[in-house]
Amino acid sequence: MAPTPPRKSVPKDRFPAVFATLKTQTYYDPSSRGPGSHTIRTIAWNPTGHLIATGSADRTLRIWNPEKPQVKNSTELRGHAGAIERVAWNPTKEAELASVSSDGTCRFWDVRTRTCIASISLGGEGLTVVWASDGSLALAGRKDDTLIPIYIHPDIPPTAGAPLAQSLQTNQTIFNPVGSPTTLLLTTGDGSVKICSWPPPPPIAATANGSTPSHNPGVSSSRSSTPAPPASSASLQTLHTLHAHTSACVSLALSPTSRYLAIGGSDALISLYDTHDWICRRTLSSLSGSVKTVSFSWDGSYVVGGSDEGTGIDIAHAETGETVARIETTAPAPCVAFHPNGKYWIAYSGDSGGLKIVGAAGGVAASASSLDQSPVDSSRSQAGTLHIPLQDLHPYRIGCVGPVIRIVITTVIRYVAATTSVM
User: Fold this and answer.
1) Residue by residue, what is the 3-state secondary structure of the chain?
2) For residues 85-89, average pLDDT
């Protein structure tokens, strides 16, 4: 992987002026032939930020070079027979991509050679995929709320593990951010986020000697492999539950410093949880609809959310919740993603023309190397550390009570002011 450039943060008071200088680049895809014909469902930067992948409803899976917006400089990966629902890059390999589709497959790609190196049959329509930080595992999710672990091996094709059926709607999952996977966080339809141990306990033995069978349903690869019999379902062990929203939790993201967990809900709110004590520190309420994606800047200082309702993208300061900048859009932007590696670029979908990247066309903050040094505050949480609480936490018991109190105080002040003016 390419070396990481010097990282310099922009403090909150300077960010609005600096971000305002950034110029937006549009990446026009010829597959777009009219309104709604090329809806981008997912975007993802590779680990170095030198490439960005987009997946669309019309089955188009394309890799863009942010520095070269012409489509001739992009790479189209062909093979899916349905809409691309989610793409994710291997954190340890800048040219390996996983994609899931409504065609019921999870495919692994070498974007340098444009080849599909393996295809896993999920047994149902795909919805999500996420990598473990060490690249040893990809976890795919189906639309029927079943998770399929896919184990990555250096010399043999990926193998699918026992399916993990969930009793609640499951929209997104993430692993602990550093090292081998030990903790899995997943959103649920009842407004909570489950913190589960990984790996899950083995399923009931399906072999005569009681050993756990090797599950590899429907694998096809550039290397030979033999599918195994269908797997019995395993189950996750829930360690704790965060009752984060009053309606379904839809998206989540850990800040790069692991200090905050951002949880987007169908109630149009983003809650920011301190991962040291799992208290909801603040709630962002600038969105108009369900929060489809959340993303932190590379230093964890700023956070954005994407929604399929309303227009505009507000950038909030993670430590205060204040809106520090806004991207004006002509249409809802459900997919948003900060650049992962030392730049404050923001990629988003929704506007006509396809993918757009704020910062890719130049500006003061186009390169972090031009900015004054401001240290990243990581005193409360070290990257990769997730402190598990001793009990389930309810937002109205110990977390999100702060925003409620502020609303009550504001209402009282307005009532007193109105009464005084009448008198």
Assistant:
1) CCCCCCCCCCCCCCHHHHHCCCCEEEEECCCCCCCCCCCEEEEEECCCCCCEEEEECCCCEEEEECCECCHHHCEEECCCCCCEEEEEECCCCCCEEEEEECCCEEEEEECCCCEEEEEEECCCCEEEEEECCCCCEEEEEECCCEEEEEECCCCCCCEECCCEECCCCCCCEEECCCCCCCEEEEECCCCEEEEEECCCCCCCCCCCCCCCCCCCCCEEECCCCCCCCCCCCECCEEEEEEECCCCCEEEEEECCCCCEEEEEECCCCEEEEECCCCEEEEEECCCCCCEEEEEECCCCCEEEEEECCCCCEEEEECCCCCEEEEECCCCCECCEEECCCCCCCEEECCCCCEEEEECCCCCHHHCHHHCCCCCCCCCCCCCCCCCCCCCCECHHHHCCHHHHHHHHHHHHHHHHHHHHHHC
2) 98
Tokens standing for residue 11: 């403090």
Q: Which of 7-21, 87-101, 382-396 has the lowest mean pLDDT?
A: 382-396
Structure tokens belonging to residue 158:
């990926």
Q: Which residue in the block uniquely carries the two structure tokens 């948003």? A: 336
Give this prediction's pTM. 0.83
Residue 86's CB is within 10 A of a number of other CB atoms, namely: 22
Residue among 81, 75, 82, 67 nearest 97 (CA): 75
Report whether pLDDT(356) > 70.
yes
Q: How far apart are the first and last CA of the chain?
A: 70
For the record, the structure tokens of 372 come out as 């004054």
